[in-house]
Write the C-alpha cells for this entry.
Amino acid sequence: MKRYITLTACLLGWAFFGHGQNVHWGITGGFASANLSTKQDNTTETTTNSGFYAGGFAYFEVNSGFGVHSELLFAGIEDANAILAPILAEFKLTDQLSLSTGPQFNFSLEEIPDGFTGLSFGAASGIGFDISYDLRLKARYAYQFSNSFTGDDDIKVRTHFWTIGLGYRFL
C-alpha cells in the first residue's frame, strides 16, 4: 500500500508541478455513479449508487494534439466518500473533441473494516468536448483492477465509476 501512495504522490507531483509546457488549471464537477461488484463462488452481486464529484484539474499541453490531464476529485456517493485521482493521456481528435485514458487511484474516506483496503487502482477512459475555450463537457468510465477485499476467502470486491460533468478552465 505504501508503494501505491508513493507512486500516486510522485505522479501527482509530476503532473501538477512538472515540466514547463503550457499548463491549464481549472475546476470540475458533475454526476457520479458507482457500481460496487462483489463476486464469490461464481455469483456476482452488483449495487449501483449515484452522487456527485467536484475538484480541480491540471492539463499539461505537450503539443497541439496531446497532453497530460490530471485531476484531484472528491466524490460523494450515497453514504460513501472518496478521493479520485486520475492521471490521463489526452489525445485531441479535433479542436473540440478529445479522448483520454490512463490510471486512476481511488482513496476511500470511510472507516475501512478488517479484510478490506481503502486504496484501489484501475484504469479510466473518457471523451471530452470543448464547448468553448473555458468550458468543457466530459464523460469517463473507470474500471478498478485491484481487489478491495484483502481477506483469505476467494472474494472479489471492485468499484467502477461513471462520471459526467463540466470543467471550467481558469488559465
About this structure: The chain has a mean pLDDT of 89. DSSP finds one helix and eight strands in the chain.
